[in-house]
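Below sits the subject:
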Amino acid sequence: MARTCDYPGCSNKDVADSPQSFHRFPVTDVALRKLWVLALGIHVDTKVEKIKKLRVCSAHFSDDDFLSTCPGQRQMKKRILKKSAVPAPQVNKTVAYQLIYEA
């Protein structure tokens, strides 16, 4: 069974051919964890054990939220979030395009 994104209303799945990357909550950085919890509408007193199981897909982060490679470096195999990244209520750009222009 494939894991789905835990952002409210998102149905992106973590499967082998998915264009999305999936990211864990920052459990050790308490302040950042609270920002993520608020962004997802989760109660702030939710236990860390439950939060550790949650994942958010890359559709909820901007390109600026990810580390980039420097010129001359090899491309990273997976996208890595910056330590300051907080998910936002974005949807996959293809889905947004379809909703706006094909409706």
User: Anything to note?
Assistant: Helices lie at 30-40, 48-51, 93-101.
